[in-house]
């Protein structure tokens, strides 16, 4: 596939794809007879994996290290696994921190919800106290406009 197609499928710009290629994050594409880059489907899957690493906060240096290990082949499988396991622990710590933050937000939102309910109840009670007992609230009369 051409770089434009890869860009459309991944959501990355062509410039970013060329940059990733230049720094060694993705393998160099073969060139077709007109000199255009031609990518195979495996690059799409690799970019999707890199996107997951990026989303989970792995720095580009970590992604580069993983890419180098991957390019080195089977002999680096243990180190790649260790790198990903360490990153997974960092992600779990982030998730725990985010869950704690969500709990704080949930508590604040619940507090505001209770406060608004109390305000509505107080306003309703205040309105009821202003009306003489036993008298329903006065209805507004419609004005005739020369009908």
From TrEMBL:
Keywords: DNA-binding. SMART domains: HTH_MERR. It comes from the Bacteria. Residues 132-147 have a biased composition (Basic residues). Residues 119-147 are annotated as: Disordered. GO terms for molecular function: DNA binding; DNA-binding transcription factor activity. Residues 120-129 have a biased composition (Basic and acidic residues). The keyword DNA-binding applies. Residues 1-69 form the HTH merR-type domain. Gene3D superfamilies: 1.10.1660.10. This is MerR family transcriptional regulator.
